[in-house]
Amino acid sequence: MVIQKSRVTYDEVVATLPTLKTEEQLNLLGVLSLVLKKSVVQKERKHSLLELEGLGSPPSGRQQKAGQ
Predict the structure, then answer these.
(1) Residue 45 and residue 10: Cα distance in Å, rounded?
(2) Using CA atoms, how far apart are residues 36 and 17, in angstroms rounded to an integer?
(3) DSSP assignment of 27-65, as one string?
(4) Region of residue 49 (left: phi > 0; alpha: psi -120 to 50; beta: else)
(5) How many other C-beta atoms can be found within 10 angstroms of the C-beta atom of residue 25?
(6) Distance of CA 3 to the CA centre of its chain
(7) Which 8-state DSSP code applies to residue 2?
(8) pLDDT over 60 at 63, yes or no
(9) Distance (Å, rounded) from C-alpha 22 to C-alpha 49?
(10) For 29-62, what is each residue's pLDDT tens digit?
(11) C-alpha dihedral sign at 26, 31, 32, 36
C-alpha cells in the first residue's frame, strides 16, 4: 500500500487564515519567518573563501621581486 502525502496549496493556506485564532496566526507567521530566514542564509552561504584567492598580498615565499 502506497501512502501519498497531500500537499496544501498556497491558496488553501490563505483561505484558512481567517479561521485561525490570532495566536495561531502569529505562530504561523513565526514559522514562516524561520523558514524564510533559513532559506536566505543557505543562499548567502553558497560563496566560498576560495573566491578570495588572489586578492590582497601574496603569501610568504611567493612574493614578487621588484622588477619582475
Answers:
(1) 28
(2) 19
(3) HHHHHHHHHHHHHHHHHHTT--GGGGTT-SSPPTT-PPP
(4) alpha
(5) 13
(6) 30
(7) P
(8) no
(9) 44
(10) 999 999 998 888 777 666 677 777 777 776 666 5
(11) positive
